[in-house]
Amino acid sequence: MAGDFIRVRCEDCENEQVLFGKAAGEVGCAVCGSTLATPAGGEAELHGDVLEVVEAR
Ligand SMILES: [Zn+2]
Questions:
Q1: How many angstroms is it from 21 CA to the middle of ligand 1?
Q2: What domains appear along the chain, each with residue ranges and CATH number?
Q3: pLDDT tens per residue, the chain (57 residues)?
């Protein structure tokens, strides 16, 4: 598995954003700056609503 992209919706402003599933750093919402993902042992821990997993090709 090379790692998937995950579409999440920010819980604070409902912005939809695509994140890398194995984010190496903290990922913030592009609109309001709320934390959407934090790295946790190789896999990102997601804080928003997961809408869809987009498989890497
Ligand atoms: Zn937001």
A1: 18
A2: 5-54 (2.20.25.100)
A3: 457 899 999 999 999 999 988 888 999 999 999 999 999 888 889 999 999 998 867
